[in-house]
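[step 3/7] fold_predict: job queued, chain A
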Amino acid sequence: MGSTNNIRRRLQEHRLANHAGTRYSKHIKLLLVQEYDSVSQARKIEARIKKFKSRKILDKIIADGIITTDLGL
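[step 4/7] structure written:
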């Protein structure tokens, strides 16, 4: 999970293991892209999702293909 203004560059960085979170994961798969009006808005939503600590919520987001308001976001 992360924020960027250039998705292709971000994926390439992950594939080259330039990020600590993906250093040991060679097979990265993009599951969802969602655009926001500002980077600050995207980062606020990202931070709230990370606080949930529940795989069920992440699975729902991926299955729905969107981060919806019924998650309290």
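[step 5/7] annotate
The chain has a mean pLDDT of 79.
The chain has one domain: 7-71.
exit 0
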